[in-house]
Design a protein that fits this description.
This protein is α+β, with helices and mostly antiparallel strands and about 300 residues long. It has 13 helices and 13 strands. The strands form 4 sheets. Strands 4-5-7-6 form a 4-stranded mixed sheet. A 4-stranded mixed sheet has the order 10-11-12-13, with helices on both faces. The mean pLDDT is about 95. It comes from Gordonia malaquae NBRC 108250.
């Protein structure tokens, strides 16, 4: 068993102090039993063996490990989002993002992005000894840095979902600066009820195509007495579901197979149709290939939903 700190990270110095030889540590890295996060810091591979999104979790660990160095760098942007649990749409996981606390001096280094920016105390959060920008500052930083409406919307959806006040976000976007127009528009449509980046991206594509903005997490009582909660709803006529793999894994009950989940979802969908609702489903591929909007337009035309 490797000695780990409060973050679950193996510190080389701590391992050597416990009598573990340098050769054993190096052999573990070569074999893959330990994953190198930063100089002298490693992650036992089993720590991410059974998680839903191992790549995301590994990036979170990398960000934390990079913030444990000298000078206590402040994680920001995509790295802060990872530590805070704010799910982004295709985050930049090639680089650890930090903000330097100054009005200038941003730079790009191998696997590290240093952003220029002042850091008031009320913008900082201490997460078990790691300094990160708080949820409001992080969401605004991400929204201003991105060039895409879907990413900005996803960041604000995530921030509102953890209780960030919308007025605080508006205040932070009051001054004119690069990217603020896109960020303001995204905030106008942001909704904390979105439960995943896939749902946020779905809504962003609907908004950009000028389709009706759906209600979120709509609920219907089924004939079986169960309550069905659907990702999207329009006019009590149409309900839409974004199907991500993580969503299906979380729906699995003890002892169930993936086939059991699919059958249960099919029964639920049939019960929704019995209520007179049209049910549409889409997956990541539909969003990546931009086919979801065309599918929705065909359904809306058939159902008489105006757009």
């Amino acid at each position: 068993m490797w000695p780990t700190d409060q973050h679950g990270i193996v510190q080389r110095d701590a391992a050597l102090a416990r009598g573990i030889s340098p050769r054993r540590v190096d052999d573990a890295v070569r074999s893959g039993a330990l994953i190198l996060l930063a100089r002298g810091r490693y992650l036992p591979r089993e720590a991410i063996a059974d998680v839903d999104a191992p790549r995301d979790e590994l990036y979170r660990y990398r960000s934390i490990a990079s913030a444990l160095g000298s000078g206590r760098p402040v994680l920001s942007h995509d790295s802060a989002a990872a530590v805070l649990g704010l799910k982004l749409l295709y985050p930049d996981q090639k680089n650890v993002h930090v903000t330097n606390g100054r009005g200038s001096g941003g730079s790009r280094r191998p696997q590290r992005m240093v952003h220029a920016g002042l850091l008031p105390d009320d913008d900082l959060v201490d997460v078990d000894g790691v300094l990160v920008t708080g949820p409001a500052r992080t969401a605004v930083d991400v929204a201003l840095a991105t060039a895409t409406f879907p990413q900005a919307l996803t960041a604000f959806d995530a921030a509102l979902a953890v209780g960030v006040d919308r007025e605080d976000l508006r205040r932070r976007l009051a001054t004119s600066r690069r990217g603020v127009g896109l960020a303001r528009r995204a905030l106008l449509f942001a909704d904390g009820r979105a439960e995943s980046p896939g749902e946020s991206w779905s809504r962003a594509q609907m908004i950009e195509a000028e389709l009706p903005v759906p209600d979120l997490q709509v609920e219907y009582i089924l004939a079986s007495g169960r309550t069905a909660r659907c990702d999207f709803g329009v006019d009590d006529v149409f309900v839409g579901e974004f199907d991500g793999l993580v969503k299906y894994r979380r729906s699995m009950r003890a002892g169930e197979s993936p086939e059991d989940v699919v059958i249960r979802e099919k029964i639920r969908e049939d019960e929704l149709r019995d209520l007179g609702l049209d049910v549409g489903r889409w997956v990541w591929r539909d969003l990546r290939e931009a086919t979801m909007v065309a599918k929705l337009k065909r359904r809306y035309d058939r159902l008489g939903i105006r757009y």
